[in-house]
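Build the 3D complex.
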Amino acid sequence: MTVPLLEIKNLHAAVADKEIIKGLNLTINKGEVHAIMGPNGAGKSSLSYVLSGKNGYNVTKGSVSFSGEDLLSLSTEERAQKGLFLSMQYPTEIPGVVVTNFLKQSVNAIRKAHKEPELDSLEFLKILKSEATKLNISQEMLKRFVNVGFSGGEKKRFETLQIALLKPSFCILDEIDSGLDVDAQKIVSEGINQLRNKDNSFLIITHHEKLLSDIVPDFVHIFADGKILKSGDKTLAHIVETNGYTQFLKEE
Amino acid sequence: MDSPLVKDITLFLDDKPSVYALRQKAKNALLATGFPTPKTEAWKYTNVKDLLNTPLEINTDSEVCDGDCCQHHQTEPFIEITFCQGKLHIEEYNTPKGLIITPLPVALYENEYKNYLFNSFDLEKHPFAALNGMYLEQGICICVEKGSHISEPIHINYHQHNCNNQQIHIHNLIIAERDCCLEVLETYNGDTSFPYLTNVVNEIYLKENATLTHYKIQKEAETAFHIALNAVKQQKNSQYKQFYLSNGAKLSRQETLINLDQEDAKAEIYSAYTAKKECITDITTNINHLKPNTYSNQYAKAVLEDSSVACFQGKIHIAPNAIKTSGHQLHKALYLNDNATLNCKPELEIYADDVKCSHGASCGEIDKEQLFYLTSRGIDKNIATKMLIDAHLEEIFALISNEEIKTLFCRK
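Done.
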């Protein structure tokens, strides 16, 4: 039997003593795309921070294994080096850190962890240029400070560029459609779809069914009050779109 | 004067009455005012007691080093002027048309620059500049002729490697005639475990429409005292832009005095500094807006570690008739622990209506969201922290348009 890529068992987590994840179970296998849908304040983004190991998000109970390894014992950077990537709903602006330098540091940190030789500037810039072009990211944008002055669309395209460069085995896409117009969403969705393959998996966090018609998931989970209330296939997303979340909350 | 810094010695050209008179004038000013104490307002946060009690000698040997001790391989396209242990290397300067470089002793002998000495500041208000004047001998005069654009930066390289237990006083003149343009870079490098004092005065005169970009990288030894005064007088529509990086010395004070003497004169001061261990870093500015439509802007960024103490005091004075002027200052500090101290003292003296002035200060720690973003991309926490520290200062370096010089600043 193959080991699941991600296996979350009875996960409980708290922020400043307030419990936000209350007994979550979820298994994601290699190559699968899962979507988590849920109302505002359900704890969807908190789940992504717990999985990334952000300070202040404390696991109080349960376990998470990643490729069979205890994910929770690893630091944020170690999780990233093992292949976990979180595309944030609101990517952080970092004045003073130039995009190209940041990407090079990041790519080489991950290569180093995989015992691959680090790329020199020339090799790196060649790869960067080719990936950036695919996502319609200008050379000028690569010279700017990380996320500073980026439009909503530029921020999400930049997150997608990072996925293309870092090649993570597991991506959490937290509201990757927020702040995007139709055209920008199309570029991002196409970018993600091109990166989908039998070896990597995605966890898509969204409010809207629309995104899931562009990036079609294998499984959909309804998430509210810190746990999964119902799981199904992509048709579940259509039910949410038509009837809202209330029915699931009542069923509970 | 009961400080071992004040000595009764005979200097080169003491037999020349005009030079002797200048030195006496400075000495008398120092005797009249004395060295600053913690009660002296301008020195409230920077205690120089330790410096005043350190026995430091003056090297009266006119013999400069043989040049071997400070051989370096210059790769940047700069016009080089070197001081080794406070003594000017006399060499043939390969200067472009319009640029005249004269060693100070030569200038003193010829009386040529007499009107420019001690003319940009008040000896009685600057005790260390007065001390410097007492020992007036070493220095360089840079003069750019009318309308000349000097494309290569002039690099004044201070090699302080063997200045053990010495006090070094250097007095430079920079005179930029009408419509000229130049860049001057000063670098100070020291490496010793003994104390020494570097005391530099730059008197800078910018005539109408002249533009000077003045860069300074201070990396003195950790045992050094570094005191510097840039005194600038600006005529109509002249522009002075200063970039200062401080990353050394046990005690350093960079004071900039600017007189915007005529309309449309513009001055900008950008400072970046890192302070470690128990070092004291002082940035003091005095900007006098004396005529209408003058502009000044000051922006400083600091990284404070360990038990370091920093002081940023900036005075903006706007004279009664100086309407439509604009004077701004801002200081942002990044604390890496709880023991560092920052004293920020803005002083605005506004005697005119219809002016724009602002001041501000902020301080904070490494941003946790930014650190999370970087580490969540696989970058080790230590490297990510260093990237964020560099990023804090990068905002200042990003304003440097000369790429070669920017690289020197980024290298720190």
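Chain B has a mean pLDDT of 93.
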